[in-house]
Design goal:
Number of helices: 1
Shape: elongated
Structural class: mainly beta
Radius of gyration: 22 Å
CATH architecture: Sandwich
Number of strands: 7
Order of helices and strands: HEEEEEEE
Oligomer: single chain
CATH class: Mainly Beta
């Protein structure tokens, strides 16, 4: 008859707990410890590509309720520094392969962004509950 050998699970349990603790300390702001606004990437690791007709006035993040859950929101404010009314295309790429974007102004019924004026929009990113490590921001004009 085979005899059962007792293997202690304590080393496995302790190793699993250490991995969970280290994964939880991976960095970045979460909804529980987030201020009202914060930098959009860990250590402000943001790569920007802004059209010459635009000036990035504000690029901040916050966690707000969206579709029932605390979700990362990007606030983008753009100033038109050209001499013509403009419409801007915004693309935000995250390090986890998610992306959001849109147009500023979103609708043209009230007109485009006039020279010297600033317009903004807030983009929610569904399913993102942690500050990304890297962000790429592209702003182009619509021609």
């Amino acid at each position: 008859m085979k005899q059962f050998k007792w293997v202690s699970i304590w080393p496995i349990f302790i190793a699993a707990m250490a991995v969970m603790v280290l994964a939880g300390c991976a960095g970045g702001v979460t909804p529980k410890d987030a201020p009202s606004e914060f930098l959009c990437a860990v250590d402000n690791n943001v790569d920007t590509d802004v059209a010459p007709e635009a000036e990035l006035v504000d690029f901040t993040c916050s966690f707000k309720k969206w579709e029932g859950a605390a979700t990362l929101h990007f606030k983008v404010a753009i100033k038109n520094v050209s001499d013509k009314p403009q419409r801007f295309k915004v693309n935000i790429f995250l390090d986890n392969s998610k992306a959001v974007g849109g147009l500023i102004p979103r609708k043209t019924k009230k007109g485009l962004v006039q020279p010297g004026k600033t317009a903004s929009f807030t983009y929610p990113v569904k399913g993102v509950t942690r500050q990304p490590k890297e962000v790429m921001l592209k702003i182009r004009t619509m021609k």
